[in-house]
C-alpha cells in the first residue's frame, strides 16, 4: 500500500521549549483521500495527542486552515495527491498567528478584526413588514463577496498582515465590500471611514497571496481595489 510522509509541526506548550517536526507514515487506503483523512488516520491510529481543528469536513465551517508545502489551504477539501511533493507533505499551522498547540492557532485577533468592520446589515430605515427586497441585479453584486467562510487562509498569507499587526487584512476587508455593495445597507460611510486609517486599504500592496490562498476562490484583492476606488471617489 502506498504511503505518504506527513511531516507535521508539533508543539505542546506544556512540554516543548520550541516547535519541532515529527514524521508520520500515512497509508493511502482509497483514491481521493483528503489531507484531513490523513490527519485523522494519524490521530486515531498512531498519536491521539495530535491537535488540529476540523468540523464540517466539506469546506463550510472554515476551521481547518493550515499551511501545506508552503501554501495555506483547508485540509478537508484538498486531495493529498494534489499537493504531495516527493512523497511528503510538510504541514504547519497558519503562519503569523499565535501558536496554541500543534496545528491549532489563536484566531482571536483575526475575528476581532472581522468584528471591527461591523459585518452586519446597518439600516437607517424601519424594518419593512416582511423583508428588505433586492432585485436580481442587486443580489448578483454580492456574488464573490458573501461566500467567505472566515478560514483566515488569506489574512495569514498576507505579508502586510505579518508586518503590521493592526492591519485589518484581506478577509475583514472582503467583508466590508460585502456590505458596502449590498443595496439594503446604509453603513458604507462608517465602514469606509475605518479603511482610510493606517489599518485599512492603503496597507494592501497588491501582492495577491490572499487570492492564491482562498479555498473558496474569492478575490480579496479585487474587493480591496473596489474599496480604494470608492474612497477616492468619495473625496470629489
Ligand atoms: S493583495 Fe493585499 S491583502 Fe492580499 S496578500 Fe497582498 S497585500 Fe495582502
Ligand atoms: S476570503 Fe477566502 S481565504 Fe479569506 S477568510 Fe474568506 S474564505 Fe477564507
Ligand atoms: S472542516 Fe469545515 S471547512 Fe474544513
Automatic annotation (TrEMBL):
GO molecular function: 2 iron, 2 sulfur cluster binding; 3 iron, 4 sulfur cluster binding; 4 iron, 4 sulfur cluster binding; electron transfer activity; metal ion binding; succinate dehydrogenase (quinone) activity
Cofactor(s) needed by this chain: [2Fe-2S] cluster; [4Fe-4S] cluster; [3Fe-4S] cluster
Gene3D superfamilies in the record: 3.10.20.30, Alpha-helical ferredoxin
Enzyme kind, highest EC tier: oxidoreductase
EC number(s) stated in the UniProt entry for this protein: 1.3.5.1
Ranges where the 4Fe-4S ferredoxin-type domain occurs: 138-168
Gene Ontology biological process terms from the UniProt entry: respiratory electron transport chain; tricarboxylic acid cycle
UniProt keyword terms in alphabetical order: 2Fe-2S, 3Fe-4S, 4Fe-4S, Electron transport, Iron, Iron-sulfur, Metal-binding, Oxidoreductase, Transport, Tricarboxylic acid cycle
Listed pathway(s): Carbohydrate metabolism; tricarboxylic acid cycle; fumarate from succinate (bacterial route): step 1/1
Catalysed reactions, semicolon-separated: a quinone + succinate = fumarate + a quinol
PROSITE patterns: 4FE4S_FER_1, 4FE4S_FER_2
Top-level taxonomic group: Bacteria
Keyword field contains Nucleotide-binding: no
Pfam families: Fer2_3 (PF13085), Fer4_10 (PF13237)
Similarity remark: Belongs to the succinate dehydrogenase/fumarate reductase iron-sulfur protein family.
Protein name from the UniProt record: Succinate dehydrogenase iron-sulfur subunit
Organism: Desulfarculus baarsii (strain ATCC 33931 / DSM 2075 / LMG 7858 / VKM B-1802 / 2st14)
Amino acid at each position: 500500500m502506498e504511503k505518504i510522509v506527513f511531516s507535521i509541526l508539533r508543539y505542546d506548550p506544556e512540554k516543548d521549549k520550541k516547535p519541532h517536526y515529527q514524521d508520520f507514515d500515512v497509508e493511502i487506503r482509497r483514491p481521493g483521500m483528503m489531507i484531513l483523512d490523513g490527519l485523522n488516520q494519524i490521530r486515531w491510529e498512531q498519536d491521539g495527542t495530535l491537535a488540529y481543528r476540523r468540523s464540517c469536513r466539506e469546506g463550510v465551517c472554515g476551521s481547518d486552515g493550515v499551511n501545506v508545502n508552503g501554501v495555506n489551504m483547508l485540509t478537508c477539501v484538498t486531495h493529498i495527491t494534489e499537493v504531495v511533493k516527493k512523497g511528503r507533505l510538510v504541514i504547519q499551522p497558519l503562519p503569523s498567528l499565535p501558536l496554541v498547540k500543534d496545528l491549532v492557532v489563536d484566531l482571536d485577533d483575526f475575528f476581532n478584526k472581522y468584528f471591527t468592520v461591523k459585518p452586519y446589515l446597518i439600516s437607517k430605515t424601519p424594518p419593512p413588514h416582511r423583508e428588505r427586497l433586492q432585485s436580481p441585479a442587486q443580489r448578483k453584486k454580492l456574488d464573490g463577496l458573501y461566500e467567505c467562510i472566515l478560514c483566515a487562509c488569506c489574512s495569514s498569507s498576507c505579508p502586510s498582515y505579518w508586518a503590521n499587526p493592526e492591519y485589518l487584512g484581506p478577509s475583514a476587508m472582503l467583508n466590508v465590500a460585502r456590505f458596502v455593495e449590498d443595496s439594503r445597507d446604509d453603513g458604507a460611510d462608517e465602514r469606509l471611514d475605518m479603511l482610510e486609517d493606517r489599518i485599512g486599504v492603503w496597507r494592501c500592496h497588491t501582492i495577491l497571496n490572499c487570492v492564491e490562498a482562498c479555498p473558496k476562490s474569492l478575490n480579496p484583492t479585487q474587493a480591496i481595489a473596489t474599496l480604494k476606488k470608492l474612497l477616492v471617489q468619495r473625496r470629489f
